[in-house]
Amino acid sequence: MKVLVAGAAGMLGRAVVAEFSRRGCQVTACTRNDMDITAIETVRGKLTAARPELVINCAAYTKVDGAEEEAYQAFLVNGLGAKNLALACREHNADLVHISTDYVFDGSKEGPYGIYDGTNPINTYGRSKLWGERAVAEILPRHYIVRTSWLFGLGGRSFVETMLRLFRERSKLEVVDDQRGAPTYTVDLAGALADLVTTRCYGTYHITNQGLTSWYGFARAIAASVRSPVEIIPCSTAQFPRPARRPANSALDPFPLLETIGRLLPFWEDALARYLTKNRCE
After folding, report:
1. Residue 141: which domain range?
2. Does the residue 217 lie in any domain?
3. pLDDT tens digit string along 96-132?
């Protein structure tokens, strides 16, 4: 299969390129310098040259707080960029995987969000990602919209890397304990994407590692894994104000992922252990 990956230099993009290459696909890895997804003619030109059967959109504006001040840039990349890819895929008869986020939900639901639950983003980043989702769904029938959460992996900024740095710099940390979600390892997500596209079961999916925790619980698990003596203190969101509001509940119901690809991702604790082992070796 000929695959084009947009955002190939990012944390998820690197994992996706590696996974699809490992499976024998002919992968065209496009960084922002190779293909500006906000420029439709550039996108069309790249797809004309590469002739992919599948495009995977890992390109995104991901600065959640920054989006509050840079709304235009967030919508340009997360919204218009996704639309441009969908248009070009339609013209070239290619499938599209579009990566989205738990932040399209407001976090007020008691239990996990299903794929058809009503969206109601509470920050600019979430609104820009929802704009992209809707553009893809409107333009291209042969799409996979994949919502995920709390990504970590090699080659990018993540909560895990932030904690590891802070463990070296501080003896005490306060971490928010009233936001819950599923930490997700890019390697595991990339593997699930590779399985999903072989099914040709188009639509919206929620793909995360199994299990839920808070940022505080996640930080404690990271500290325990690396045997850090740092003291981690739980605090509330109100005690740690940020420019962008965050959903209190980011739990995503995976149905029908198991029924589609035959498996769920491993639990996040297992994923974290594998990532930290790999991280120390590289």
Report:
1. 2-158+183-210+251-268
2. no
3. 999 999 999 999 999 999 999 999 999 999 999 999 9
pTM over 0.90: yes
Domains: count for the chain: 1
Span 3-28, mean pLDDT?
98
Catalytic annotation on 116? no
Query: CB-based burial of residue 7 (10 Å sphere; 0-12 exposed, 13-18 middle, 19+ buried)?
Result: buried
| CATH classification at residue 86 | 3.40.50.720
Does residue 52 belong to any structural domain of this protein?
A: yes
Which of 103, 125, 144, 275 does the annotation list as catalytic?
A: 125
| 189 inside domain | yes
